[in-house]
Amino acid sequence: MPHQYTSFVEWSEEEDEHGKLSMDCGFSCTFHKPVEFGGAEDILNPEDAFVGSLAMCYSITLKSMLEKMKVDLGDFELETKGTLEEKDGKKMITTIELIPRIQLKEKMDKEKVKRALELAEENCPIGNSIKSEVEINPEFG
What we know:
This protein is an alpha/beta fold. The chain has 2 helices and 7 strands. The protein has 2 domains: 7-37, no CATH class; 46-140, GMP Synthetase, Chain A, domain 3 (2-Layer Sandwich). Helices cover 26% and strands 32% of the residues. It is elongated.
């Protein structure tokens, strides 16, 4: 069954070239260009949102895979780095590196966790929707 997600953007001269993004989930925020392109600091920009979208989706999918495998991971961190560069005359996010940082608990099956990381990559809807190269580089403690 298909699902649809809607967002709405408003621009106002009073906002000093900031846009306002509202989503059907009830979330809204202002946004601007990245600082590197003359934007304001501390305001969401599309590039950070793009990279963050993959981070959110991958972490949710990973938690789901771990639950299905009955692995109680507990807390974990996910650092995500997107690289914007020019390719074929177009600016694009070419690579996104996901770095899950996982503290293995006693008696935790590391191979099961590695399999969950793979399944999360295969089943993340955002990851499956982008053409950027995605690299998963887990760190275990």
